[in-house]
Each structure stands twice: as structure tokens, then as C-alpha cells.
């Protein structure tokens, strides 16, 4: 390969491909990804800042004596933590997680933390992706994350069953960040296919994946968008990374090859071909995009949150930005999501709405989401997304 890379003709091709790719990237900003989406409401976005703080709590060794608490604290009761498991307990099969019984919000929550850069086991899970070669419930998923999700379900199924039976009116929510986001997204699908075993209805199961890795094929991402929600902050690179991470690590020893493959793949692949690839992985579920920076302007602006269940144009391109890494941080997501929620509450005076009107708004929002969900399924069928017809029929029967 090194001999081929030294040929002058191919070096010129590399340069032209890279120049074209950089030119397109310089004109593309993350705001374009969601410019046609609708604005999220305070009712639907309200759980996100609280969820961020709960995920941050997983990083603490002792929640009763926190060392890294955000301003205002985590807002959780240590006595309501049902269990916590670290790397010793999970044997490296999954990142640390906890189960929290939230009586204030009538919710049973399982939270999984993100990638630990010092743990080899987390890299092993993330790199075991095989480009979506694992078939799962009519689609394809990330192999390593699926193994982790199965491990968590087998380990905690009895605990969740007990909590659900003792709290029959509570919801069951799976939350995670980065690596953990991919795990809980697939864990949610497993839970949905074991509703009878858990003793819970589909409309009481939810998932919030913050800065998720691409973990499921497009038909699965659309099908479960009524339950799974992904939150992406501005330029975050991980929900946009389509190249196999294993391939990227192997190609670090040949930078020209890496540049050539990345540029040509991102620039020359037609979107129609991307959509027809059943093994191509995507960010899961309904998407919430927090936009806080504007093109050619310096600094952060008051954030707005846009949401949709897109089929095409689903974070397809990496954005050239100095914030692609910082926007992946759970700390920044917590800060910006709380700021965005405060602005929403201030705008519509959510806290002053009478209970009856608030319930009516929630019912209206649920109806709108259901209509958008059905429209996304129809759009997938129109675009001839592989296996969407089958998934639509299965979904309609439920």
C-alpha cells in the first residue's frame, strides 16, 4: 500500500479529493442539518437536563459525597439508588451503570455512563462494530453494543421486573451518554421485545441517548423513534461518524490512505446509495438537535432545540469545527440543555399553565409525535428503505 501511495498521479488525486472535500465542509455547518425541523417544546424537552445530571452521577464514587457535581447538584436522592455497578461488577462487558427509582417523577431509570478513555474494555466494546454485520429484529446493529445491552438485560431483568411490579404506574427509562447511549438504545429494543416478561406496556418505556454513536440501521432507527430519543449538541462528531472506528485506528499508520478513503467516501457516495444500504448504521430514534452557534460568528448564542424523525439527511456529514470534541461532552450537553429549557419556560410561561391545559398540551404533543412517526415510516417506504414495509406492518399491528 505504501508503494501505491508514493505514485505521483495518485498523490494528485488525493490532493484534489481532499480539496473538494474541505471546500464542501467549509460551506457546511451543523445548523443546516436541522434547519427544516420544528422547534421542540418545553414539555417534551423537560427531562433532558435532569437526565444529564443523573448520568453524571454515575461517574461519582460516592453520590452522598459528590466531587464533580454541577451547579445546583445532581438533584437525586442517594436513598433512591437501587444499585450501582462498576467495571469490577460488569467484568468489562459494559460501562458502569446505576438503577434509580425516581419517586418525584414516577420513573424507574437505568443510566449508563460514557466511554472511559483509560479502560481497554470500553474500546473493545466500541471497536467491535463490524460495520453493522449483526442482524437484529429485522435490521442491523452495532455488534459490541448489542453484546453489552444483552449483558445488562440478563443481569438486571429480575430487578427491573420487581421494580415495575411494585410501581405499576411508573415509567421505565433507559438513559446513556456516548458509548452508554448506544447500549441503552439497543437495550430499549430488547426491553420492547420482552414487555410481557417485564410486565410493562410499550407506552411506558422510554429511552434518551445523549451524543449517541451510530448503532442501528435506518429501518430500526425510524421504527423505534416513538420510544427512543437522541440528543445531539451542535457539531458533535460521534453521531455523524460513519466510518468504522476499527478501520480508522488501523489506518492511522498511513495518513494519505486515511484521507483518501474518508474524503472519497464522504464526497462521492450518493445519498440514494446510502439509504439503500441496509447495513449502514445511524443515530437512533427521534432526534433533538441543540443549536447554539451561528455560521461565521464567534461565541455561543442562546440555544434553540429542533426536533424531527428524519429519514434522509440524518446527520450524514462530519462538520469541520473546533468544537466537534467539546460538543460531545456530557457537561456541555447538560449546561446547554438546561439553558435551552430555561428559555423555553420563560417564553411560554410553562410553570404558570393550569394543570388541565398542561395535560391538553401534552396530549396534543403526543398526537403530533404519533403523526410525525407514521409520516416517517411512510417516507421510509417511499424511499424504498430495505425491510421498511415489513417493519411498518409489524408496527401497525402493535
Automatic annotation (TrEMBL):
SUPFAM superfamilies on file: alpha/beta-Hydrolases
GO MF, one annotated term: hydrolase activity
InterPro entries cross-referenced by the UniProt entry: AB_hydrolase_fold (IPR029058), Fungal_lipase-type (IPR002921), Mono/diacylglycerol_lipase_N (IPR005592)
Domain named Fungal lipase-type: residues: 110-242
Domain Mono-/di-acylglycerol lipase N-terminal: from-to ranges: 10-75
Entries under Pfam families matching the protein: Lipase3_N, Lipase_3
Any one of the GO BP annotations: lipid catabolic process
Signal sequence region: 1-19
Entry keyword set: Hydrolase, Signal
Entry-linked PANTHER family: ALPHA/BETA-HYDROLASES SUPERFAMILY PROTEIN (PTHR46398), ALPHA_BETA-HYDROLASES SUPERFAMILY PROTEIN (PTHR46398:SF5)
Protein name: Sn1-specific diacylglycerol lipase alpha
Amino acid at each position: 500500500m505504501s508503494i501505491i501511495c508514493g505514485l505521483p498521479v495518485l498523490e494528485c488525486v488525493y490532493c484534489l479529493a481532499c480539496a473538494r472535500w474541505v471546500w464542501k465542509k467549509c460551506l457546511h455547518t451543523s445548523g443546516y442539518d436541522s434547519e427544516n425541523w420544528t422547534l421542540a417544546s418545553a414539555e417534551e424537552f423537560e427531562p433532558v437536563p435532569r437526565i444529564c445530571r443523573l448520568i453524571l452521577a454515575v461517574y461519582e464514587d460516592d453520590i452522598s459525597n459528590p466531587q464533580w457535581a454541577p451547579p445546583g447538584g445532581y438533584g437525586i436522592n442517594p436513598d433512591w439508588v437501587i444499585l450501582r455497578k462498576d467495571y469490577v461488577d460488569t467484568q468489562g462487558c459494559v460501562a458502569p451503570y446505576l438503577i434509580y427509582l425516581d419517586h418525584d417523577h414516577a420513573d424507574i431509570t437505568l443510566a449508563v455512563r460514557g466511554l472511559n478513555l483509560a479502560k481497554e474494555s470500553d474500546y473493545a466494546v466500541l471497536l467491535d462494530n463490524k460495520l453493522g454485520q449483526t442482524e437484529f429484529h429485522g435490521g442491523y446493529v452495532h455488534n459490541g453494543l448489542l453484546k453489552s445491552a444483552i449483558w445488562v438485560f440478563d443481569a438486571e431483568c429480575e430487578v427491573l421486573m420487581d421494580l415495575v411490579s411494585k410501581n405499576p404506574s411508573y415509567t421505565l427509562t433507559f438513559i446513556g451518554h456516548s458509548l452508554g447511549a448506544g447500549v441503552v438504545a439497543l437495550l430499549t429494543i430488547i426491553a420492547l421485545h420482552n414487555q410481557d416478561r417485564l410486565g410493562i406496556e410499550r407506552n411506558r418505556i422510554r429511552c434518551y441517548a445523549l451524543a449517541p454513536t451510530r448503532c442501528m440501521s435506518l429501518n430500526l432507527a425510524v421504527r423505534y423513534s416513538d420510544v427512543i430519543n437522541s440528543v445531539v449538541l451542535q457539531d458533535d462528531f460521534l453521531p455523524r461518524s460513519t466510518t468504522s472506528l476499527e478501520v480508522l485506528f488501523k489506518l492511522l499508520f498511513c495518513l494519505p490512505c486515511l484521507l483518501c478513503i474518508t474524503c472519497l467516501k464522504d464526497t462521492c457516495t450518493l445519498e440514494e446509495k446510502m439509504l439503500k444500504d441496509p447495513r449502514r448504521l445511524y443515530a437512533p430514534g427521534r432526534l433533538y438537535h441543540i443549536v447554539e452557534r451561528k455560521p461565521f460568528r464567534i461565541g455561543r448564542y442562546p440555544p434553540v432545540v429542533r426536533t424531527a424523525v428524519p429519514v434522509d439527511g440524518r446527520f450524514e456529514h462530519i462538520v469541520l469545527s473546533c468544537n466537534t470534541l467539546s460538543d460531545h461532552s456530557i457537561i456541555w450537553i447538560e449546561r446547554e440543555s438546561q439553558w435551552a429549557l430555561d428559555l423555553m419556560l420563560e417564553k411560554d410561561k410553562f410553570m404558570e399553565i393550569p394543570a388541565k391545559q398542561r395535560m391538553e398540551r401534552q396530549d396534543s404533543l403526543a398526537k403530533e409525535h404519533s403523526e410525525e412517526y407514521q409520516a416517517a415510516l411512510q417516507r421510509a417506504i417511499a424511499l424504498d428503505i430495505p425491510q421498511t414495509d415489513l417493519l411498518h406492518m409489524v408496527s401497525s399491528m402493535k
